[in-house]
Here is the input.
Amino acid sequence: MLSAIYRSLWRTLGRVDSNYELELQVAEMRKQPAYVPADKPAPTIFAIKCHPKADKVCAELDEYFFKNWPWKDKATGQKFLRSETNRWACLALPNARDDRIFDAVRVNTLLFLLDDVAETMSLSEGKALYKRLTPIALGKTLPDRNDPYEWMTYDIWKSMRATDPELTEVVWQGALLCITAQVDEARMKCPDLGSLLKHRAKEAGIAFVAAVIRFSQALHLTAADIASISDIHTSYALLGVTVNDILSFDKELRALRLTPEAEGAAILNMTQALANDTELNYKASKRVLWVLCREWEVRHKQLVKERMTKKGVSKDLASYLEGLELVLGGNEWWSWYTERYQEKV
Here is the structure.
């Protein structure tokens, strides 16, 4: 109040002192809190829920994978249990039908585990693995029952096809995009954030998870539906990839240190790319990316709101758009606490 009176008085007297004006303005600005780096971002605006049968499903599938997967050693299997990998899909797919949640969780965990295997390999070895598993997943080749990679892949996809062959094919196309990108030489040639984002959207399983939403809820979308939400899919991919890259980055660093010679462990992550481009350290790079994510969330909500006000929004399309947001919220929640990403010391 006084500063305003003084400024008015000085102007009235015709004696405006620019330095004095500047001092007053700076003093006013300094009343605002100074920037303090905070590694914990503002909370997501997306809803976070869990499937009502999560405990039962996770208990069954924890036992299934722990007993049957060829773990490197017992400690690795026990870490899998502590990481609550099966709970990821229960948080990402809380609206899944009760008769589909089991397979939806299984197929997600299968891709998590195969990604870990490919991470320890060269790109050519990873290609060979997926080339061997592809006809088995499609039911064109019977599995070797002594090879867990083969028979588990066969059984999971067979069960899904028995439930819904049409939507299982959609899921398979998403999975194929993901596993192909994981062993593609292009992952070693992403010179900028734009090309990196496009490749990460493929190998991080963004399209795959979106397809699993549809399978888990029996949502049938038309080509027109898909075309009408291309901007929402892009927004979903940006958010999914970036949050994953922030929260999985430390795990990727650990994997690289353990197997520095493995091409599959080579880091392709927005956290590192931004740090390289801006000379920020990794923590600062993550903080910048979190701000981007929160801005993208606001934009995502606006895009969905605009689409919902237009004609031609079926019940399945509305449920699918809700499902995309639930995946984003559930994924972030799980990623903050899972031992898969957050190493316990």
